[in-house]
Design a protein that fits this description.
Chain lengths: 453, 453
């Protein structure tokens, strides 16, 4: 019996699956994730990482085909896709595919959006390519998890290049064989290290994932060949970057299970394990009893949750906004004090707010692995008073308690304002919800062009 | 005691080492390797892999700053560096750093050559940058060998990006800190899989190594930051891509041992383990005794050598020129029959020559690990006659028996003719030997521009 080729089977699925066969709730989820993508991309238009990258990438842009979101700037499709991917991910506030912790939309949507400015693409073709690209990306991620990330691979970057290649490959009509070759050229370009997290160079591999996926597809269109089994081959992507990779899982139930349904959108710009803690603290910030005593009377703030909560977020001494995104001490202090938990609350400015340090110092952890990572209990102890307790069984933003359409819209509005591009988010929101009816997706990019500063 | 930072120490060396302190034989070797680089780059100008890559990369080239060797074509420095790197390596006929099997010059020389077309660079600054870039590249390769390649990483691609980044970083005068950041952005872009060997997609990661090294250096120049320990960090390049990496070796005896001296140039476009076999067969092809009997009288051709010879080259059934480069059966047959062993003898055309199959079928192997990989014995057995035997103790092209300057010049002449660019190699050869006296390296690229076809 010959070994079935996983790469070929995946390529066949990407080449042939039809929009008509995509379930309605999967279609709708693809619009939700696109809207969430725009929210985060619009938040970072003028972030220093994006500014510097745009300066260098702009020097080597060959054309002005495609919109760099929010900056009033146009570049060729490779550079625009790279910068837009970096922007959507720079705060790690983009979507999260829970089984892998991939941020799947960031490396896939920007290539498709850039391409749709070069020719007229229908909303259905666009969304189908987005869904299939994300499906390939997340399934490859599943096959190498959890070893791959634990080893030190930045999984969104390494798997993102496959998502971009498959999405663009489908959009431009590659054959099954050409899609296998595109997987091969993508496999040769898969890179990104966990060591770079928290620094600007994390964004390089993100931008490359988007950019190099496009290049892989365009080379394949020229019949630029690659190995027969780029994924499952003896020295292919799966075996080289993971021990005990599960190649077969990539093609099990294709078209039946959809990974986009395992994707969730963050309500707060923080590590997802902080979601229930922040939700509890936002509720406490308006608690009449606590307001009557005043925050300065707090003696102790006890966080009970899964041990991962403590392991990943017990960071009392932080210096930057980026570090604050994974600091329980900061998250508790800022959300109790300000009653908000947006990007401004996890910025360098917020970390510099010395009034928060005293409250953060009251935080302590109680490990209880009976809690899921979506749950937490926060108990505030005040001298001479009853403890005040808030229990969150399943936080907003969990796969089981996703943000509503309305909440995603509000995230677009809030992050668009934060990014200071001056863009009106309302026409964008309307356009994304109606995208499956559009006959020219590229028009949407006019709504997010913005102006140079 | 704080852990010494390997990345910082390497960066300091690259930032500060002076031309005056480079030993004369190291300087001379840098010119030899550059000449060898031009020979292979000129051989491949119109190879199908390069044609297709140039078509796609050319679409996204922003300028005509830099020469694409031999094609009468100019692109921006990123695209030109990528294509020239692909060209120099496409036949695997470029230099070989024996401890790692890295082809070190291909990803480092093209970025420097492209840059030297954008501003006036002296020959000494150029050669120093080349030497330092190769040194960083090969030392990082040493630190992850042999695990890294055995795991499936295409080591020239993965380490080449560091070489390019350090070479360009030195040329443009980055500080030590900026060079550490450049190592960080390079680490995020290190990719390339052994699975792609023998296909066009191998060339993608090679081109990326050159291209992305430049990008890493230019971003660092904008203070685009990265991790403090991109190489030796817990989730940095060394630990993620190798078990038991020897980080400290990267900085041991910097400026005292030179890796360019462990680099050798191939006399034949084949796996280096075939060198002694081919040398023996070329000698046999002119053997009067064998000529008198005729090749059709051969009963058996016995190859005695290190077991790696058999393991890597026992390939009787091959279909392409690329496969023939690692087939002992083909190498023996073609060099005995034609008395030559150049690119033409390892092309698709040569593999299609059915007269060779009969001779190849007579080949058998005798493993003897007392042989070094640079040695082999070839015994030809003819019915009713004494066996004819040739022993090669150390093949041409070994580090211990390097090609002479004259032989490298002849390689330039032969490969330049093979590539059919119409370029006159003589002024190029003269210019490379005199490069340390040049005040404008970019001029050399006019000698290899060629004409479009």
């Amino acid at each position: 019996m010959s070994t079935p080729s996983v790469s070929a089977e995946l390529a066949k699925f990407v080449a042939t699956f039809r929009w008509d066969d995509v379930p309605e709730h999967v279609r709708h989820e693809s619009k939700r994730t696109l809207l969430n993508f725009f929210s985060v991309a619009l938040s970072a238009c003028f972030d220093p990482t994006i500014q510097k990258a745009a300066e260098v990438y702009g020097r080597f842009s060959s054309a002005t085909q495609a919109t760099v979101i929010g900056r009033g700037q146009r570049m060729d499709i490779l550079a625009a896709a790279a910068i837009n991917t970096m922007g959507a991910n720079v705060f790690d506030f983009d979507d999260t595919h829970f089984p892998t912790i991939i941020h799947p939309t960031s490396p896939v949507a920007p290539p498709l959006l850039a391409w749709s400015e070069t020719e007229k693409i229908s909303g259905q073709d666009f969304l189908l390519s987005l869904i299939l690209g994300m499906e390939a990306e997340c399934r490859i991620g599943n096959a190498v998890s959890p070893y791959h990330y634990a080893r030190g691979w930045h999984i969104t970057s390494t798997c993102g290049v496959f998502g971009s290649a498959m999405a663009i490959g489908r959009l431009i009509g590659l054959t099954q064989q050409q899609l296998v070759w595109a997987l091969g050229s993508a496999s040769a370009q898969a890179s990104g290290l966990v060591e770079t997290l928290g620094t600007m160079s994390k964004s390089i591999s993100m931008g490359n994932a988007a950019r190099n996926g496009i290049v892989s597809a365009l080379l394949a269109q020229q019949n630029f060949d690659g190995p027969a089994k780029p994924l499952e081959g003896v020295r292919g992507f799966l075996n080289v970057t993971a021990d005990n990779a599960d190649a077969q899982s990539i093609v099990t139930d294709l078209g039946k299970r959809w990974e986009v349904l395992n994707n969730a959108y963050k309500p707060y710009p923080c590590g997802v394990v902080l979601n229930p803690v922040i939700e509890a603290c936002l509720s406490l910030s308006a608690n009449p009893e606590l307001l009557r005593h005043g925050l300065n009377k707090i003696e102790r703030i006890e966080l009970t949750g899964h041990s991962l909560l403590r392991q990943r977020t017990d960071r009392p001494h932080i210096l930057t906004g980026r570090e604050s995104q994974v600091s329980a001490q900061h998250a508790v202090a800022v959300s109790l004090t300000r009653g908000r938990a947006g990007l401004a609350e996890f910025s360098d400015e917020a970390v510099g707010d010395l009034s928060l340090k005293g409250i953060g110092a009251k935080v302590c952890f109680v490990d209880d692995d009976a809690y899921s990572v979506d749950a937490a209990k926060v108990v505030v102890k005040i001298a001479g008073a009853q403890p005040i307790e808030v229990m969150i069984d399943m936080a907003r933003g969990a796969v089981g308690r996703p943000l509503s359409d309305q909440e995603i819209e509000d995230k677009v509005r809030a992050l668009c304002a934060y990014g200071q591009s001056g863009i009106d988010p309302e026409p964008l929101i309307q356009a994304v919800w109606a995208l499956d009816q559009s006959n020219d997706v590229g028009q949407i990019m006019k709504l997010v062009a913005g102006a140079a500063k």
